[in-house]
Amino acid sequence: MKPITSLILSFLLLIIFLGFSRRAHAAGGNWQVLATIGVSAMHMQLLKNDRIVLFDRTDFGTSNLSLPNGNCVNNDCTAHSAEFVVQTKAFRPLTVLSDVWCSSGSMAPNGNLIQTGGFNSGERRVRVFQPCTGCDWTEVVDGLAVRRWYATNHVLPDGREIIIGGRGQFNYEFYPKTESTSNVYSLPFLSQTNDPGQENNLYPFVFLNPDGNLFIFANNRAILLDYGKNVVVKTYPQIPGGDPRSYPSTGSAVLLPLKNLMAPSVEAEVLVCGGAPKGSFVQANKGTFVEALNTCARIKITDPNPQWIVETMPQARVMGDMLLLPDSTVLLINGASSGVAGWEIGRNPVLNPVVYRPDNAVGSRFEQQNPTTIPRMYHSSALLVRDGRVIVGGSNPHDKYQFGSNVLFPTEFRLEAFSPEYLDAKYADLRPTIITPLNLAKIHYGRKLTVQFSLTGTLAMNSVLVTMVAPPFSTHSFSMNQRLLVLGAENVQKVGPTTYQAQVTTPTSVNLAPSGYYILYVVHQQIPSEGIFVHIY
């Protein structure tokens, strides 16, 4: 009897353990439809005034949002860009004068959106959007040296913008132009990663390394580039398996949060997730939709001998977006589980986001979240906003606007908000509220900064962090110029009945944090405050 009793007891304990395990990893987060804009959000950027500029392309046909005052561009009297106010859900039409289809961009140090390239009339354009009341797009006709379509932008430590690659462009250039930087610089790596007939190297993943060089990933491998000297200083190994992760076999990537910023050498890691097996683009165009990749690959790019570590996601994903959240986790959202990026060649939408916890042990890093009801396929985008929500928009896998019940994945004009679990009401007592600095405060490099905040619950002194996030430009499954810095927290102390303060040291180098606008958060027990914009210079 004893062995049987012991067996029954072990079985009951296993059931209890599995029950706790399921609760610990239960799906979290919730969804809300915010507005129907009338423009599909193929590209999005959050600006310092809490407005999102979004746009699709000018040759889709007429949109569902009219230009103001009866204005028309090339006989089209509808808007293909809009400004959305996060807090009020109000929106207004904007006027783009050239085709912005599959273009790129990032937010300049002064807070302007610098937006580059596109198709046909837009392929050499530079567009500027200034975040001010009633402002609209302005355009520089020949602002680029060559045509840029499916390129990637990044803000550099000196404040310039680098534009890398694009269809048929195995090179890079800078903006704004000077006499010494008006040239186009050859980058053979982009031709070496180009798969004939498939490409698999467009919209390369680009990150600024803490040493000031650029990490550039295309297809299934990466280099570290000294862009000033046009010298490859490191070549990284190919991702195990060799499957492509770049457009149209579109995965996504992030530079994981930068920590220990006062160390002599700051470590940096890159995480690449999803994509499609070799040959998927060819197969999809023949009507066979191969299952997407279900793996992520992670590499410490600052190591002398870096190696990829491969992890398995809860589900396969292609055309997904990856966002850094203020609690230093990564959100995987949008996309499909088979096919590739392109006109009507993706299938099986992935409706569940996934949270990746980079500090957890391998095997316990992924947590599946509650699903949306809206497929977000090709030409979707996603952005973090100050209150911690993620705004999701776009999805139009057709070469025109298409609607109706007989259309597979109709053109999507709705914006949604995904609220991660840290925004649940049950965490209200743990959620800090920043008192000072005020929103849009100016901060300097390498200085002590006192952050004061309130809390209704009990503060865990050793569980306070301050993080700083660069708002990215989102399109085609990549968030350009995205980075998160963990500033830590020193001398956390109580200064009032429900008021506390912490001291942090601001980033010491433009290589860690190029000058510009960032969202600063106080995070307590993994629950972030609403953020404030700060301008570091």
Automatic annotation (TrEMBL):
Residues 42-422 form the Glyoxal oxidase N-terminal domain. Keywords: Signal. Coiled coil: none annotated. Residues 1-26 form the signal peptide. InterPro entries: Gal_Oxase/kelch_b-propeller, Gal_Oxidase_central_sf, Glyoxal_oxidase_N, GO-like_E_set, Ig-like_fold, Ig_E-set. It comes from the Eukaryota. The keyword Signal applies. Residues 431-536 form the Galactose oxidase-like Early set domain. This is Galactose oxidase-like. It comes from Pyrus ussuriensis x Pyrus communis.
